[in-house]
Amino acid sequence: MRPVRLAAMLAASVLAFATTAPVSAQTMIRVASFTPEGAVGVRFVMKPWMEAVQEELGDRVNMVPFWGGALGPNPFDQFDLVRSGVVDVAWVLSGYTPGQFPQIDITELPFGVASGEEASVVGWRLLQEGLVDGLDDVHVLTFWTPDITNIHLRAPIEGLGNLRGTALRTAGSTQAMFVESIGAAPQVLGSVEANEAMGRGTINGQLQGWTGMNTFGGFAVSDVSYRVPLGASAFFMFMNKDLWDSLDADVQEVMMRHGGEALARSGGLAYDQLTLDIIERRKGEGHTVIDPSEEALDAYREAAAPIYDAWKANTPNGPEVFAAFQRLLEEYRAEN
Q: pTM, whole model, 2 decimals?
């Protein structure tokens, strides 16, 4: 066969392959949580995002779930897992990553936010203002919070003064500041560890939302809840930064259109609605729910002023972040 004819045949073969090859290779994305599949954050934040992105992008991505800690069960390790690329997308709790994102813990200040929806949207907007440190190694797909934190106990109390000298589970430094302010001892524990400690009697109660107590079985060791509003824990859905940077711009756009503020709002609202159902069900099963009087709440708010001052003093750029959060909170309330 003549060289010229052979070259022509090879060129035709290459052209045919190029025109039939896929435009872009499928990207596998491992989406992981240390929580079970039934956890509220998986059901109402992670899975809806996964399914919406998968449906729109089709075979350009392959979203693969790993629930229940399949790629790392320790809740305190999740940020390192996604940052290092062991997982591609993960649910990370700020309180389990102490000191990494200090400014976002403002959502956990007592008597600040009124609902999970409010905290989620305002927290996302704070992130968009570039005032939160510690995010350089990851990409933030969305931010949300659960329902408002209350105190769940074994025995009834008349007020916060009854908790002096007790030990209470907290999920981070901001909650710990509040616990110390009422004369109790904070114990930073995961939810399962907290249940075990409460069952043994080594702690007296837990600071947690109702959905978290329900998901992790906390009501098996708690008969009483004191509904003092103690902020809302900060949750992130992160993607590994290298993976994010490798994605085409249109893929990134789809992921953020189904994430971002819209997902923050729907996630926070889902927690709020489920909380109302859980409270009514628990009451029907004999659980004691104590609501402080307005006079008591006013006194608690006034007593919490030093916590705000300490948070601003101990948080990088604290005064600016606090002022921005209050402004964003007022804007949100005016819109709603």
A: 0.87
